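Reopening this ticket.

The earlier resolution said the output was attached, but the attachment link was broken on my side. Pasting everything inline this time so it's all in one place.
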Amino acid sequence: MLDRILLTNDDGIDAPGMAVMEQIAAELAHEVWVVAPEHDQSGQSHAISLHHALRISERGPRRFGVSGTPGDCAVIGLCHLMTEAPPQLVLSGVNRGLNLGMETVFSGTVGGAMTAMMLGVPAIALSQAFSDRNNVPWETSRTLGAETVRKLLAIGWGTTACLNVNFPPLPAAEAGPMILARQGEGMVAGMHVDTRIDPRGMRYHWLNFRRGDVAQGPESDYSALRAGNIVVTPLRYDRTDDPAYGDLAAHLPRFGVA
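Inline output:
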């Protein structure tokens, strides 16, 4: 058992996935802390609040709501609330819906984990995929979550990455084994803007992803999830594209290379 774990998410402190995460963490640590957004912060990626103040509301013992992003919550937890006794692990989620491919760039769940990793604490983002948004199979991540985290902690991973874990939209007994996969293309085929008129005749706009049948690369996370596996992908901040770097290096001098 760990001494203490810090939990955050992007769906909000009252989201059902946070209740699942608290149950998972209770099997892993003597002390569980929750520092999570007061309201849904999906799509906030790694954003932190630099231009407005944050408020913290105490929701119970070691349980706090923050008027900010998942990244804000990781910073508040690690750099303010838990400085005297830091956690050994940060868990972000359990997200309502998958976080795979390109969508990990936008994910607040992944952003919370990566902020914790940046601050020197091992972190894992966890997400529960679903086929029916009104019937999310929370029991899958609730049943398999603690053992999944235990196995990953036993294996270990580098300090420059956080782990992104996705549970398949299947009953726990039907879920395939935990498998390693690369970040694939995902299913984002673009974005669209939905324009509407409010009761006062003013226009307002909703942004959303346009999804399609996108070709996936080898060992892709999306393909692994479709096969019914629990998918693990290590993610890092370095987004340097090696093929493009090679193309440009044929025409430009490289810094530090004679």
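Reporter confirms the inline version is readable. The domain at 2-186+215-249 is CATH 3.40.1210.10 (Stationary-phase Survival Protein Sure Homolog; Chain: A,). The longest helix spans residues 138-155.
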